Amino acid sequence: MLSKSIALDREHDIAVARNEVRLIAAQIGFRLTDQTRLATVTSELARNIIKYAVRGRVIVNEMKRAATGASGLRLIFEDEGPGIPDTDLAMRDSFTTGGGLGKGLPGSRRLVDEFTLESTPGAGTRVTVVRWIN
Ligand SMILES: Nc1ncnc2c1ncn2[C@@H]1O[C@H](COP(=O)(O)OP(=O)(O)O)[C@@H](O)[C@H]1O
Ligand SMILES: [Mg+2]
């Protein structure tokens, strides 16, 4: 099953990752609306990495549910940036430390089936999302 890592080193890599995730989602069999959801999530979370952590990567894993055989996509956005001191606060609608809209994290959570935010100040941040084909 497909697994790949896309480097996020500069602004342009956000669009590269977004397009790549959309393409992989289409190949796996996600409908257009889900392709767009996953592309949007990729854009938001990749942008956070470039903006707040300078660089990082997104790891794309195709998934297969053992019980049903259903396909899905897992995206892991990780960086070794400054981290997030209060993750509950960061997940709140409109919370921003960067003069943004503060919708990236909470909005992304609403677009996927599974969402995990892990962060250690001084060590980095990892956001894991999963969306299943239903
Ligand atoms: N990868 C990251 N590293 C460090 N801080 C982050 C990261 N992603 C998000 N944050 C923090 O979480 C806050 C909320 O993020 P988000 O919901 O995307 O809103 P916005 O980007 O508009 O500020 C950011 O303002 C920032 O403080
Ligand atoms: Mg953001």
Mean pLDDT: 97
Strand content: 25-35%
Strand count, sense and barrel status of the largest sheet are: 5 strands, antiparallel
Strand order of the largest sheet: 1-2-3-5-4
Low-confidence stretches: none
Tell how many strands the DSSP assignment holds: 5
Helix fraction? 25-40%
Q: Which shape, going by the Cα principal axes?
A: globular
Number of helices: 4
What's the quaternary structure here? single chain
What hetero molecules are bound to the protein chains? adenosine-5'-diphosphate, magnesium ion
Structural class: alpha+beta
**Terminal Cα separation, in Å?**
19 Å
**Succession of helices and strands:** EHHEEHHEE
Rg over C-alpha atoms, rounded to the nearest angstrom: 14 Å
Summed up, what is this model?
The protein is an alpha+beta fold. The chain has helices at residues 11-28, 32-53, 87-90, 104-110; strands spanning 3-8, 56-64, 71-79, 114-120, 124-132.
Question: How would you describe this structure to a colleague?
Answer:
- With 134 residues, the chain is of the alpha+beta class.
- It is globular, with a radius of gyration of 14 Å.
- Strands 1-2-3-5-4 form a five-stranded antiparallel sheet, with helices on one face.
- A hairpin with a 6-residue loop joins β2 and β3.
- 38% of the residues lie in helices and 30% in strands.
